[in-house]
Design goal:
This protein is mostly helical. It has helices at 3-9, 13-55, 57-62, 65-84, 90-113, 123-131, 138-172. The two termini are 12 Å apart.
Length: 173
């Protein structure tokens, strides 16, 4: 018998139920944390994509110096806010991004009306193609982190099922 099976032999039904309940509790907390981090990463990505957009020569031709300066100031303030609120709630990050999107909407409309970005690319796609980066995008890193979270959860489930099988085996002996 494996050490896990031997250890689980000493567990009572109440202890096992408690472990299962704790696992469910942690699952909910993990999902909330995952959502919070996704919202924070989305905000950070949006800020850097907008900063990159405002730095493009083509965009500088479409907007006044005052509009660009104002946009950069707002984005810099948002980045400072993000740095000082790393442990903020999901809703705070979502609200801050909506606020920035509202600020950027008139500028983006002006850029698109004047024939701004080429090929219908997003800010991030255009920034990536203009600098020929070799590393992953923020979205790709987020996807890898999400995959890691799901893999961890999957391993937890496998271990949990294994313990249950050991318990059943020991009970039937």
């Amino acid at each position: 018998l494996s050490p896990v099976c031997l250890a689980s032999h000493d567990l009572s039904k109440e202890e096992i139920d408690k472990m299962v309940n704790e696992a469910e509790t942690f699952k909910d907390e993990d999902n909330k944390q995952k959502d919070r981090i996704a919202a924070k990463n989305s905000l950070e990505s949006y800020i850097f994509n907008m900063k990159s957009t405002l730095d493009q020569e083509e965009v500088k031709k479409k907007l006044s110096a005052e509009e660009i300066s104002s946009g950069q100031s707002v984005l810099q303030a948002a980045l400072k806010w993000l740095d000082s609120n790393q442990l903020g709630e999901k809703e705070e990050f979502v609200d801050k991004q909506k606020e920035l999107e509202e600020m950027a909407r008139p500028m983006m409309s002006k850029i698109y009306q004047q024939g701004g970005q080429t090929g219908g690319q997003s800010c991030g796609q255009e920034q990536r193609s203009s600098t020929d980066q070799k590393g992953p995008t923020i979205e790709e890193v987020e996807l890898n982190n999400t995959n890691l979270l799901f893999l961890s959860f999957f391993i937890f489930i496998i271990i949990f099922v294994y313990i249950q099988i050991c318990i059943i085996y020991l009970i039937n002996e």
